[in-house]
Amino acid sequence: MPPTPSSARSSAPSSAGTPTLPSQVSPPEFAVSAALPHAVLGVEVAALPVLPGDADGDALVLGPGAAEAGELLGIDLLAVLEDDGATGEAGEVTSVPVPLGAPDNAELRRVLLVGVGQQTPEDLRRAGAAVARATRDRASVATTVPAISSDEGLEAFVVGAMLGSFAFHWRSGPPPHRPVARVVLAGLSDPQRVAPVLDRAVAVGGAGWRSRMLATVPSNLKNPPWLAAQAEAIARKSGLEVTVWDEQRLADEGFGGLLAVGRASATPPRLIRLDYTPRTAGRRTPTVALVGKGITFDTGGLSIKPGEAMVNMKRDMTGGAVVMATMAALRDVGCPVRVVGLVVAAENAVGGDAMRPGDVIRHYGGRTTEVTNTDAEGRLVLADGLAYAVAEVKPDVVVDVATLTGAMKVALGQQVGGFFANDDALAASLQAAAERAGEPLWRMPLTAAYEAKLSSTVADADNAPSGPGAIIAALFLQHFAGDVPWAHLDVASVGDAPDESHEWTTGPTGFGARALLQWLGSDHPLEGVGS
Prior knowledge:
By secondary structure, this protein is α/β, with parallel strands linked by helices. Helix content is 32%, strand content 18%. The strands form 4 sheets. It has an 8-stranded mixed beta sheet, with helices on both faces. Strands 1, 2, 3, 4, 5, 6 and 7 form a 7-stranded mixed beta sheet that branches. A 3-stranded mixed beta sheet has the order 12-13-17.
């Protein structure tokens, strides 16, 4: 389970005192059982699957445990569904009160009839999220929904139940709701066999929870040093190596992009490096570098954003959160390759020493950029991270993740993330993994037709020329990836969920960790790449 972020104090001065993050809710705990839900002693809720009828209009079908529960409670559950107009659609819930409990389980108070659609992983993820929402503030629920699915479906259900439970609060009192404390996956024919599947599911769901939590923490606490402290805590718990560059070391080693973006802030920038090595690593084990944008708040700098566009900028470090959450779960998903995670962390603030339009900055490795828009800062810090990764990590593949351009949201809306890649095999692997994980990505064209727009009269490139914004940004970054197979995930389109929708909760999404873990946790994540 992902821990609550540390309440490490901000180094920024505060007239109201130093902020401390209140204790946060935790995701549910999970257990497995061969017993049917009504027979699991002490559970308050039994959740039973409902399968839709066929194309000929045949009746709904109830899943394992329904017949026994209906007989025990004296309730015709199919009649209840018919009266409710249920269809069996994934995530649909019909709630049946049991005020007096069951003969052999006095704590039982409710039966949930949960639509599972066609039982695809997406359907089961939605069913898991629906169960989570319907059981908030309960102590326990037992369900046979995973009993009718494959291992992939079980993982999807658990991930949905975890992320549908997500909540964040900073109130003077307790949170208004708490996730159900315990979920029992019941009616399994061989509970021990699925235990490793459940462990992986909890790791993947936990990564989604962690990235969402980090993206949601307000920026009066979350700044680059705080983010570095979180990375150090993750490293201690997950067995990773960690290195943090402070502002002096960044200056000594030439990270001009990070320093320029972060120099107006009261809290200085940081470069965070996390290293994962699989237990079976040898000389020929390939290396993947992940680079995450960690802008802990983005005012736009002197090219200041409108007020309404600034409100959600605490989540402009989503890319960094995704990298940190992914690194924390690599061992749990059995990642077979070395992975180096880099988070380029800065606050883009306004001040007397702020980066100005017209400034020229020198990135790690020497390439220069003319700054024509200080609100195009993400690519400036990513450039340093990519250049460092290529020169020092020498990866076989490099992937960067960022809430980078509003243009991506214009192109794709808020349901799909965008990505660019210079290698077709890498693009295919990432897109397939993202689809399976429930974090879909759409490949965008990395066309050279707009390359000339990057030209500057005084530097190697202009950071914000006119043209198609997402493509221009990707072309800018491509120069820093060199000849290494590279993908750029622009998740600005999906950085925020406008409302509750299945496993997505309103607010910052932390989008991307599940997709990367699906890819890196496969048997051969780099198969065909670079060939």
